[in-house]
């Protein structure tokens, strides 16, 4: 084996002696380096009189590996607070983000609540404005554009009468004669309850029966023209209302009762003093003709223009009808006002002879009022051949001259849009 091969083997597999020699040589090398470094540092300290020898003196026993480890340890100690600070910043940043998220959520919720409340307030405001506009248009501002009056032609034929109702041949100029009813020309009689002249006769009577109080005005007219109707503020249209006493006084009425309150409805038949104002129906229609006949027409059969041709003078549309075609009381009604209430009605005996009836109710004068069936029975008992219910309740009102005759509990009657009245002038 040559020398090179032996040397290689010794390097790859050193003996214990070789290892000892190597380690001794390595230690000697490190020691020599340490001494050299210490000498250089001492020389530098001599050159720098301001150096602090106690902190910079190198221990010759310290090895290079130990010095590196010390530097690494120092670096770790220096980096530790930085790392800890960085971790703290992350935590703080996380907390800030959570707080910001909560604030954003609260802001969104507050904004949403504000939007919801704003929407609700605006809805209420618009609804209120709409209701006010509706009330203003329908109850305060009078309707305009009154239909042109229909000119009343000459009577073409006598209207068909309800069976059992007298059908005298008469025209618009027909006069009615009743023995001992009217006074001589130029004469007049007037008391609190009676008014008589050559043209009209009105007698007011009071009645109390078993806790019921009602009033009757027995009316005769020489000609149908003395039985008139009047509008509130002397104007046709919705939104016009006036107290019945004021309407009666303004029209020089001898007596009057509340009408059908046509102004409370958009749809109903309105013929007043021979003029057709509205040709539609709300209920069965009560028609008074120029010949003095009064009858009730089914709502499906009523034709305003045709009735004008037939000689219609007045038409009321409230109802219901109270007597059948034989003058007998109707006992069954389809109505929302079936119970006991203050009532107002017009009755018909014969051409030129009528009655107005008003009933106290709801405790006024200790009177409960009448049901529709009881009102019908009352009119039948009075001998009427036809009878029709007008607007009652708080609207019910009877006037004699310039005074209201009936009473309402703790209040006055309501204003209305029209009245039925008796006057002493054509």
Protein model, in words:
With 426 residues, the chain is α+β, with helices and mostly antiparallel strands. It contains seven helices and 17 strands. The strands form four sheets. A seven-stranded antiparallel sheet has the order 1-2-3-4-13-12-14, with helices on one face. A hairpin with a 2-residue loop joins β7 (270-272) and β8 (275-278). The longest helix is centred in the first third of the chain and has 77 residues, at 64-140. The termini are far apart.
What descriptive keywords fit this protein?
2 domains; 34% helix; single chain; 426 residues; seven-stranded antiparallel sheet; alpha+beta; 20% strand; five-stranded antiparallel sheet; 7 helices
**CA-to-CA gap between the ends?**
167 Å
What letter string, H or E per element, gives the SSE order?
Answer: HHHHEEEEEHEEEEEHEEEHEEEE
Mean pLDDT: 77
The total count of helices amounts to 7
User: How big a fraction of the residues is strand?
Assistant: 15-25%
Helix content: 25-40%
Structurally, how many domains make up the residues? 2
Counting helices, strands and paired strands, the structural category is: alpha+beta
Task: Give a summary of the structure in a few sentences.
This protein is an alpha+beta fold.
